[in-house]
Backbone:
C-alpha cells in the first residue's frame, strides 16, 4: 500500500504519525510510506536574489524540522519512509504529489471547522478533498485510534460510491488490522407520514406497522445486499447494522459510540463548495470526531 502523509508539525499531524506507528499488520505488509512537508514559497524577488540552490536549501532545512521527528518515530515502529520537501500552495502540491506517486491513500490530520465559514476540516484538508480523487483518511478531533484491530464501519447505500468504499476496505484490510472487525451500516427510512389533509381535502393515509417493516426490509436489502455479496466473494466476514431516521445523524451517532474508523463513499464537488463530500457525508463529518475515510468511485 502506497500512502502519502502530509505533515505540518501540528498536534493533528503528530496524531497521524502515532496512528500509523500502531498499525502492526500494515507494517508487516511493508507499506510504502511517503512523508511530505510543503513550505510556503518565498516571494519571487527574494528567491531570485538568493538563487535556486540557496532557496532549495532553505525549503529543505525548514521541512526537515517537521519531517525528522516523524521519521524517527516511525523508524522506532519499524517503518521505513521516504521524505519529500516541497514548496508552494499546500493543497496543489499535496494533490499533485499524490498523483505522481499513484498513492493508494492520503492520511491527513485535521481539526474541526476552520476559520473559513462552512469548511469542516480546515482549508488544506478541505481543499485536498475537493481536488483529489484519491481516498483520504482524515484523523480529527481529540483522538486517533490506536492498536492494530480496528472497528470499521462502512456506510452502505447501494450506490457505486458506497461500493467503492467496500472495495477499498477489502483491498486494504491490512490497514485495519489482522483482527479488524467490519460492519456495514445502513439507515432505512422511517416512513413516518402523519395523517393530514392534502390540498383537495383528502386525508393522506399512513403506513401500517407491517407495511413499514416490509418497505424497510426491501430498502435494507437493496442497499446492503450488493456490499454483502462483495464480502462473500472475498470470503471475508462482516456484520450488518440497520438504523432508521436521518442517515447523516444516525450514522454519525453510531460511529461516535461504536467505531474506530468510518468509511464513506463520496462523489464530491470541485472547488471549495461547502458540500464537498455530498450531503450525507457532510452531516456525518459535522457531527462526530470519528476518523473518516472518504473514497471516491
Residues:
Amino acid at each position: 500500500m502506497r500512502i502519502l502523509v502530509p505533515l505540518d508539525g501540528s498536534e493533528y499531524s503528530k496524531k497521524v504519525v502515532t496512528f500509523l506507528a500502531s498499525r502492526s499488520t500494515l507494517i508487516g505488509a511493508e507499506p510504502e510510506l511517503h512523508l511530505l512537508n510543503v513550505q510556503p514559497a518565498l516571494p519571487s524577488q527574494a528567491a531570485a536574489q538568493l538563487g535556486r540552490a540557496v532557496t532549495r536549501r532553505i525549503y529543505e532545512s525548514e521541512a526537515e524540522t517537521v519531517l525528522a521527528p516523524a521519521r524517527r518515530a516511525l523508524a522506532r515502529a519499524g517503518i521505513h519512509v521516504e521524505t519529500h520537501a516541497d514548496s508552494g500552495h499546500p493543497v496543489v502540491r499535496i494533490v499533485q504529489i499524490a498523483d505522481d506517486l499513484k498513492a493508494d491513500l492520503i492520511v491527513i490530520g485535521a481539526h474541526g471547522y476552520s476559520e473559513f465559514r462552512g469548511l469542516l476540516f480546515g482549508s488544506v484538508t478541505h481543499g485536498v478533498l475537493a481536488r483529489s480523487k484519491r481516498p483520504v483518511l482524515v484523523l480529527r478531533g481529540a483522538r486517533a485510534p490506536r492498536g492494530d484491530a480496528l472497528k470499521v464501519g462502512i456506510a452502505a447505500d447501494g450506490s457505486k460510491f458506497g461500493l467503492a468504499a467496500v472495495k477499498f476496505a477489502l483491498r486494504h484490510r491490512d490497514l485495519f488490522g489482522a483482527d479488524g472487525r467490519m460492519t456495514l451500516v445502513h439507515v432505512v427510512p422511517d416512513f413516518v407520514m402523519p395523517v393530514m389533509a392534502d390540498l383537495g381535502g383528502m386525508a393522506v393515509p399512513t403506513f401500517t406497522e407491517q407495511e413499514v417493516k416490509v418497505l424497510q426490509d426491501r430498502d435494507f436489502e437493496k442497499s446492503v445486499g450488493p456490499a454483502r455479496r462483495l464480502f462473500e466473494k472475498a470470503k471475508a466476514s462482516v456484520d450488518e447494522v440497520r438504523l432508521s431516521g436521518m442517515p447523516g445523524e444516525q450514522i454519525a451517532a453510531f460511529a461516535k459510540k461504536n467505531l474506530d474508523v468510518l468509511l464513506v463513499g463520496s462523489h464530491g464537488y470541485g472547488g471549495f463548495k461547502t458540500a464537498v463530500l455530498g450531503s450525507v457525508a457532510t452531516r456525518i463529518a459535522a457531527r462526530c470526531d470519528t476518523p473518516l475515510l472518504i473514497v471516491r468511485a
In short: The two ends are 18 Å apart (CA to CA).
